[in-house]
Design a protein that fits this description.
Elements: H1 4-16, H2 19-26, H3 30-44, E1 49-52, E2 55-58, H4 60-87, E3 92-98, H5 100-105, H6 107-117, E4 121-127, H7 132-138, E5 144-149, E6 161-175, E7 186-187, E8 195-198, H8 205-213, E9 219-223, H9 227-235, E10 241-244, H10 245-248, E11 256-262, E12 266-273, H11 281-294, H12 297-302, E13 314-315, H13 316-320
Parallel strand pairs: 3-4, 3-5, 7-11, 8-9
Antiparallel strand pairs: 1-2, 5-12, 6-10, 6-11, 6-12, 6-13
Helix pairs in contact: 1-2, 1-3, 1-4, 2-3, 6-11
Length: about 325
Amino acid sequence: MFDSRHVRVFAEVVRTGSYTAAARNLGYTQPAISQQMKALERAVGTPLFTRVGRRLRLTEAGEVLSSHAEGILGAMSAAQEQMTAIARLRSGHVRVAAFPSASATLVPPTTARVMAEHPGIRIELLEAEPPDSLDMLMRGECDISLAFGYEGTPEPPEELVEFPLLDDPLLVLLPADHPLTERPAVELGALADERWIAGCRRCRGHFAQACRAVGFTPDIAFTTDDNLAVQSLVAAGVGVALMPEMVLSFLRHPGVTGRPVTPMGRRRISAYTLPSHQRIPAARLMLGALRQTAGTADAAHRRGGDAERGTSERPRSERSGARSAPRALDL
């Protein structure tokens, strides 16, 4: 392997025909040019020039290197331009894995903001529920993961850095004519005798645990992860369901009514990335834009106005009290 700077000097020596002329054009001394050419010859293991009288002549190896020098320098220049564009956010690629309701609410305005300010940035959206989206991040299949968690649910891997975004209240969906719609809020225990529509077994763990905590096992009559199907079933009067308020902000059946339910509380929504990804300009830009989106008045309304949004990213271990992790960057 040889130093690319030496190749640049070599090309100038070939172009001008002498060390002295190359030194003058490049702003070096003639001995400095001579030393660099000797270093290049040591690196390639063979002489590149011979001297005929006062003139330089390329050896066979020199001819080979000369035939490639322009291509080498052109490729290096192109690479430098591309890397500069990435560093200055004129181009770049960031992959975001998000669960469906985040894809419908947080991602679109965030993407619009980034594209308006940096049209060369390409954003790739991948849809995945946690913990699958976090596993994708750990495997390097995405750069940022949007995920949610409930109190008492397992913490994401401590190697990840968390950027808290917002808290999303949980509502109970009732048919529009249900007697409990007259209440401003509903206690979970008051729903013990209802039939329920719930998600897959992995998705409803927090719900089942909360029901057990207030003394009943829910009668789950229907299982679906389709939010539109859930609302349609509730509207038809065949059961009730729990749904995050974020979903109702973009999809609401006219035949259902949502009410806050206690003690279900809310889910915590955060963006996660690997510590090293914080130094990637496009990923850093996207993380900052996500936090801007989460800080809008609409996000404050979804949070119910009583949950303070985190103002700085936190390594996993800071929240869990576990091992220390790299300190995150301020965005």
